Amino acid sequence: MTTSNSKFRSSKEAPTEPFKRAVTSCLRAIARKPELEVTFAAERPGLAPGKARLPEPARKMTKRDAAIVRGHADSIALKLACHDPKVHRKLMPGNPQARGVFDAVEQARVEAIGARRMSGVAKNLTAMLDDHFHRGKFDEITDRADAPLSDALAMLVRERLTGLAPPAGPPPGWPGFRPLRVSRIERESGSVKSLVLSPADDRPLVAALPGQSIVLRLHPTAGGPAVLRNYSLSDFPVTDHYRVSIKQEVNGVASTYLHNQIRIGDLVEVAAPRGSFTLNSSDRPVVLLSAGVGATPVLAMLHALARENSPREIWWLFGARNREEHPFAEESRKLVKRLARGKSHVWYSRPGLQDRPSVDFDLPGRIGGDALKTLGLPLNADFYLCGPSAFLQDVASGLAALGVSPNQVHEEIFGAAEAITPGIAASSSALPHPPEGLAGSGPQVSFARSGLTVRWNPKFASLLEFAEACDVPVRWSCRTGVCHMCESGLISGQVAYEPEALEAPARGNLLICCSRPMDDVAIDL
User: Fold this and answer.
1) What is the pLDDT of residue 136?
2) What is the domain partition of the chain in residue ranges?
3) CATH number for the 444-523 domain, one of 3.40.50.720, 3.40.47.10, 3.30.300.180, 3.10.20.30?
4) Which of 140, 204, 358, 469 could bond to 239 as cystine, CB 3.0-4.6 Å?
5) Is pLDDT of 117 > 80?
6) What is the spatial distance between Cα 299 and Cα 332, in angstroms, rounded to a whole number?
7) Are 208 and 279 spatial neighbours (Cβ–Cβ below 8 Å)?
């Protein structure tokens, strides 16, 4: 959409049009370019002679969404106002990597000029950088070869020139739980249903990152204990609804309730999106591998890539039992076809008599190491895996055999993550359970990913000890509030620290090694 200077505005214009006009006017004013053509699109922000492209704002924006769009506009405006292209070209190094660093540092310099002079611009630029760093998962990089050198040096320059700290990961979109209304129910396969959840009030939702999940707090029985379940979002991240897709599990309390009792119009308590299994922003090829309902987080990634018309090479690899148990079949096919370099391969482990080869599926059998060898996958790709444990182990082993680095493989595990307990031999993989002995009488502690809710017992020194007694997988190193290895998401509730942590956890998190619940808490473990 191209902005217009017309004084006559249609009564049917989109609600974001006034915001776009305001952003455009501000950009032109800072840049001193009153004739600059400004457009808004799903593509990456960019600058060309006489033209600027900004991200298309969501129809229902949060303050953070608006600040991110303004940050991109301010960044472009400051480059036009404070950057000298002739001097830049004269001093630019010849080496491509050095040139990338040179460009990033120069952009940080011009942004610092605006941030120091205008506090509003500083806040907008900070929101933009927070979003960029969070989407890039820069805080999770462990291999120096993957470190974005240009971004790191640009941050150092920004901090030195403005005194502003590097971006931290954004907190959850809202504390605790808020009610969302079931606005639509869709059948995806013989055993999978999707629930579309919309705001029950006028407040927009927070756009999740592709691959993130939400926690639902359910009440299957009147007067009975609440049940918490973690479900990945399965469509393009927007601010007017979330979609979760649930498989009916045998004897599954939550899935049975959601399949058989929830109706359109019902309210469901929902925690804000969270999770680190998200799509990296790079130019490398993408391979999305999943089986069964494990398709949900990678389907959200596929939606995002299709929405931005990604030029990357993108592979959709999926395994199901048969056509009856193939969720999102038509939806995923349409998304792959929209991609310029999209490829799809589907396996059925037990094809039905009516299942059509080359139409419903490509190959019989399962996705595994042997199947992956024949596809000609790009070995420099980012691989995203989600599905049952056996599937993850088989596929990860197959990729390793092909020479794919572990740093390129990203996995989403249904349930709790693997425990890290330094210096202690691995114990049996018992399912989470209430601690032995008499039940506690304290606040309720819900371990969301483990599906366990039990009352706190003050005989335990910390939530870490309590989790260990319940065989909930945990991660720790120091056990004294120093290393932050145990930092986990605090979905709802409050905790007290004893001893006080050396440094406070990020907003929306807690350190389980030195905390106790003050009231009912829900923890992302």
Assistant:
1) 63
2) 17-162, 177-271, 286-413, 444-523
3) 3.10.20.30
4) 204
5) no
6) 7
7) no
CA–CA separation, 515 and 462 (whole Å):
5
How far apart CA 470 and CA 472 sit, in angstroms, is 5
The pLDDT-based confidence of 314 (bands split at 50, 70, 90) is very high
45-57 confidence digits (pLDDT tens): 888 888 888 888 8
User: In CATH, which of 1.10.630.10, 2.40.30.10, 1.10.287.70, 3.40.50.460 is domain 177-271?
Assistant: 2.40.30.10
pLDDT category of residue 244 using cuts at 50, 70 and 90 = very high
Distance of CA 493 to the CA centre of its chain: 23
More confident site: 174 or 287? 287
Give tens-digit pLDDT for 334-345. 999 999 999 999
Distance CA 90, CA 110 (A): 18
Token couple for 450: 């483990």
**Lowest-confidence range among 361-375, 407-421, 431-445?**
407-421
Q: Cα Rg for the chain, rounded, in angstroms?
A: 25
Residue 208 confidence (pLDDT) above 80: yes
Task: Write out the DSSP string of 338-374.
Answer: HSTTEEEEEEESS--TTPPBTTTBSEES--SHHHHHT
Considering the domain 286-413, what is its CATH architecture?
A: 3-Layer(aba) Sandwich (3.40)
Beta bridge partners of 316: 288, 344
Question: Alpha-carbon distance 390 to 388, whole Å?
Answer: 6
Contact (Cβ atoms closer than 8 angstroms) between residue 128 and residue 154? no
Q: How far apart are CA 334 and CA 153, in angstroms?
A: 41
Output the CA–CA distances (angstroms, integers) from residue 439 to 157, 305, 464, 495, in the order listed.
55, 49, 17, 20
CB atoms closer than 10 angstroms to residue 425: 5
Q: How far apart are CA 302 and CA 314, in angstroms?
A: 9
Rounded to an integer, what distance in angstroms lies between the CA atom of residue 363 and that of residue 349?
A: 9
Angle made by CA atoms 193, 327, 382, in degrees to the nearest 5 = 120
Task: Answer whether 161's CB lies under 8 Å from 232's CB.
Answer: no
Q: Is the backbone peptide bond immediately before 499 cis, with ω within 30 degrees of 0?
A: yes
